[in-house]
Amino acid sequence: MKGGTDRVAGSDEVTGPDRTSGTPILEGVDLVREYRMPRRSLREPGAVVRALDGVSIAIEEGETFGIVGESGSGKSTLSRILMALDQPTEGTVRYAGRQVSGTRERRLRFLRRDVQMILQDPMSSLNPRMRVGRLISEPLSALGIDCDHRDRVGELLNAVGLSDDVVDRYPHQFSGGQRQRIAIARALAPGPRVIVADEPVSALDVSVRAQILNLLTDLAEQFRLTLVMVSHDLSVVRYLCDRIAVMHQGRIVETGDTEQIYSDPQQAYTRKLLAAVPTLEGDLLNRYARSDA
Amino acid sequence: MSGLTVENLVVEVNGQPAVRGVSFELDSGGRTGLIGESGCGKSLTALALMGLLPHGVTASGSVLLDGRNLLDLSDKEMCRVRGNSLAMVFQEPMTALNPMMRVGKQIAESLRMHRGMDRAAAGRRAVELLDRVRLPEPEQTARKYPHQLSGGQRQRVVLAIALACDPVVLVADEPTTALDVTVQAQMLRLMDELVREEGASLLLITHDLPVVASVCEEVLVMYGGTIVETGLVREVFDAPRHHYTAGLLASTALDSVDGSGRLATIPGRVPSLGQFPDGCVYRNRCPRADEVCVATPLLSGDEPSLTGDLAVSQIGRRAFACHHPLHDDRVGA
Ligand SMILES: Nc1ncnc2c1ncn2[C@@H]1O[C@H](COP(=O)(O)OP(=O)(O)OP(=O)(O)O)[C@@H](O)[C@H]1O
Ligand SMILES: Nc1ncnc2c1ncn2[C@@H]1O[C@H](COP(=O)(O)OP(=O)(O)O)[C@@H](O)[C@H]1O
Ligand code: SF4
Ligand SMILES: [Mg+2]
Ligand SMILES: [Mg+2]
């Protein structure tokens, strides 16, 4: 389980992460994650799926980093492992230079406070039986953070653009966009340094999506957050992220500056992915047909 | 040539109108987009066409196909129409599939029921259809259960079932919202090809404007249960006349920001059913609203002959329901 010295075939094709600015805030080295599928019969053990196949990634403090790729490429698996919510089969994860993979949960208190998560469907991440006030203050109590929870909840609600008189309402009494604001307020509560957002706007209308993207941009600046954004929507990632990593079949096939990758993709897979994005110009079917050939 | 004509369709949920007098025409071989934010009545419109409205929800007006008003048909007759002329693809493919039945069998059952094919012929045709929607190894795929397929593959099976009846009209309600971009592009291309080849008409419902731009030639913009703008996609997206269309387009464009680096948004949110303002439905969110907007604007075009509520035969032409249309300067240019 430990280690990180074994080289994984193929990982050297990848452009190495930029290490000019010192210790990355979040770093994964040679990550492998295997899942065993349920056995198909008594004699046949389940097949092994390699969800991550030798991934190295370094995220610098203060940047917005995008992880893109098609469904099943391993984006969510990678983000969970980076947050130490799941353990890699091989490889190491470090947060600000400290190893967090293979570390016992009770020694990860600092990580649970510093790194927060936002998910695609706020309805499934917000307990439907808790009022908004409780939902937002819960991480504070859970982490034993000492402050006036009432004040803090009010502050956070204002930061995400909700009025503080909503504290007594339940999640189902809000629209999708408002629920995502509540989820963001909850993530901000413990004062994190890093937020990992897995498809945070995929379930939202375009109009609401723009509101939430504006909010995330503002908050990242205001709270000096490092933002890791997992998405298959390349237009969203292009808008929000400084750097991106493109994943395909459990590997990072290309990583670098967002604008550079969008304007001059080096890998065939990246080109195919970019060609598949519909645009208002409506030339998708031609472009995609070409990239297919 | 007209495939399906909808006239003054009203859909009521417990007596509250959710779709309020909508008219449009779907031409054979035509691809029409129906766009708008959630809660604007898109799905209810689609379900009304299909005769699939849930309990407690009723439709009036007319949905004309081959000279018959589908809203007057009995459940049994409507079921036959669905098997022979109309087909629908839903956002979540699992709702349309039987989890306990192999996918090949599901397609074959539909062929046997609606086409009266025998078992062997239906089985062969099912495999052909799976091949048609570009599923790899169609024979093997036919023997799989829905849970053994990925989301994109399942959606293709649903499309194969829809095509089994050679539909005159295909209604697709957010068919690619749950799919990633590469699978989405394949699905869109497939629907586009099939509609072109079969001469069916497509009604594509989505809140994703680039998807409409990619597939459709005409677009209907829906807000508050009414059509607020319609016309050719090229014209509507190039120069929207209604402020709602303009708002949707602006918030879609993630490549342009204002001076302080912010994306354009539509202020406020879609009101819940029964909470839309009278007069112009968009009045409480529109940046251009004034006292004139208290009166309900008609859906009409610029040419004098088109002012007054638009007759169905004139739809497909450019029309919008706004007292202060945008791009007024372009008129006559
Ligand atoms: N608990 C699990 N058991 C077995 N296989 C799994 C498990 N979780 C993920 N996988 C597999 O690992 C691969 C990567 O999954 P992951 O959820 O990381 O994809 P993703 O890139 O986030 O996709 P999406 O865009 O659909 O969310 C897939 O093949 C998936 O089926
Ligand atoms: N079965 C139903 N019961 C009650 N209200 C409904 C039902 N279906 C839809 N509505 C309401 O009708 C309006 C239009 O819904 P819908 O057609 O689903 O919108 P869209 O597809 O544009 O998102 C919404 O306010 C929605 O909440
Ligand atoms: S009629 Fe008035 S409120 Fe409605 S879109 Fe036009 S300007 Fe705005
Ligand atoms: Mg995922
Ligand atoms: Mg809908």
* CATH class placement of the largest domain in chain B: Alpha Beta
Number of domains of chain B: 2
Q: Work out the strand percent of chain A.
A: 15-25%
Portion in strands of chain B:
15-25%
- Along the chain, the helix and strand elements of chain B come as EEEHEEHEHHHHHEHEHEEHHE
Order of helices and strands of chain A: EEEHEEHEHHHHEHEHEEHHH
How are strands sequenced across the largest beta sheet of chain A? 6-7-8-3-9-10
CATH topology-level name of chain A:
Rossmann fold
CATH class of chain A: Alpha Beta
CATH topology type of the largest domain in chain B: Rossmann fold
CATH H-level superfamily of the largest domain in chain B:
P-loop containing nucleotide triphosphate hydrolases
The N- and C-terminal alpha carbons of chain B lie at a distance of: 30 Å
User: Any idea how many domains of chain A?
Assistant: 1
Q: Count of helical segments of chain B?
A: 11
Looking at the overall shape, the CATH architecture of chain A is 3-Layer(aba) Sandwich
Give the CATH H-level superfamily of chain A: P-loop containing nucleotide triphosphate hydrolases
- Calculate the terminal CA-CA distance of chain A, rounded to whole Å: 42 Å
Assembly status: heterodimer
Major sheet details of chain A: 6 strands, mixed
Helix content of chain B: 25-40%
Q: Biggest sheet of chain B: strands side by side, in what order?
A: 6-7-8-3-9-10-11
Verbal overview:
By secondary structure, chain A is an alpha/beta fold. Chain A is 34% helix and 22% strand. Chain A contains 11 helices and 10 strands. Chain A has helices spanning 75-82, 109-114, 122-125, 132-142, 149-159, 176-188, 206-222, 234-240, 258-263, 268-275, 284-292; strands spanning 26-36, 48-59, 64-69, 90-95, 98-99, 115-118, 194-198, 226-231, 243-248, 251-257. In chain A, the strands form 2 sheets. Chain A has a 6-stranded mixed sheet, with helices on both faces. In chain A, strand 4 (90-95) and strand 5 form a beta hairpin. Chain A is globular. The N and C termini of chain A lie far apart (42 Å). Mean pLDDT of chain A is 87; it is low at 1-20. Chain B folds into 2 domains: 1-85 and 167-333, Rossmann fold (3-Layer(aba) Sandwich); 96-164, no CATH class. Helix content of chain B is 33%, strand content 21%. Chain B has 11 helices and 11 strands. Chain B has helices at 42-50, 75-84, 93-96, 103-115, 119-132, 138-142, 151-164, 181-198, 209-215, 233-238, 243-252; strands at residues 2-13, 16-27, 31-35, 57-65, 68-69, 86-89, 169-173, 201-206, 218-223, 226-232, 319-320. In chain B, strand 9 (218-223) and strand 10 (226-232) form a beta hairpin. Residues 304-308 of chain B have low confidence and may be disordered. Classes of the chains: A alpha/beta (293), B alpha/beta (333). Chains A and B meet through helix 7, helix 8, helix 10 and helix 11 of A and helix 8, helix 9, helix 10 and helix 11 of B. Residues 13, 18, 36, 38-44, 54, 57, 272-273 of chain B line the site of adenosine-5'-diphosphate.
